């Protein structure tokens, strides 16, 4: 039950973030030319993901006391995957699009760049 509530809070926060970032583009951005917003969106996504990972620092700190490296790696992997799934869902609903693609850099599980698809055209 608590998890569901937390997800709702995160969704709210994310929608507020997006509202702020989309309103800052102002009247210049027409629906046909969505390109100026892409870098801003990628930045917002990476920021959001890194914040989500920072929130889990407590858990990771506990894990750091366990010397088994593969456990740490596995947990980190799961955390990042969880963030991706959540982020994908939020972005899909925000842009009313079918798919969200994440590109993962393997080095240190860096938060991700994203592309989304409208119809067959990759923006």
TrEMBL record:
<feature type="region of interest" description="Disordered">
    <location>
        <begin position="1"/>
        <end position="38"/>
    </location>
</feature>
<protein>
    <submittedName>
        <fullName>Uncharacterized protein</fullName>
    </submittedName>
</protein>
<feature type="compositionally biased region" description="Basic residues">
    <location>
        <begin position="1"/>
        <end position="15"/>
    </location>
</feature>
<feature type="compositionally biased region" description="Low complexity">
    <location>
        <begin position="16"/>
        <end position="34"/>
    </location>
</feature>
């Amino acid at each position: 039950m608590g998890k569901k509530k937390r997800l709702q809070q995160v969704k709210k926060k994310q929608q507020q973030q997006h509202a702020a970032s989309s309103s800052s583009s102002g009247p210049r951005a027409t629906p046909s030319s969505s390109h100026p917003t892409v870098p801003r969106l990628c930045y917002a996504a990476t920021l959001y993901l890194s914040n989500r990972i920072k929130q889990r620092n407590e858990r990771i700190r506990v894990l750091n006391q366990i010397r088994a490296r593969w456990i740490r790696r596995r947990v980190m992997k799961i955390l990042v995957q969880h963030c991706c799934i959540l982020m994908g869902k939020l972005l899909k609903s925000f842009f009313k699009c079918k798919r969200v693609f994440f590109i993962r850099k393997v080095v240190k599980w860096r938060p991700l760049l994203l592309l989304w698809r409208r119809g067959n055209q990759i923006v």
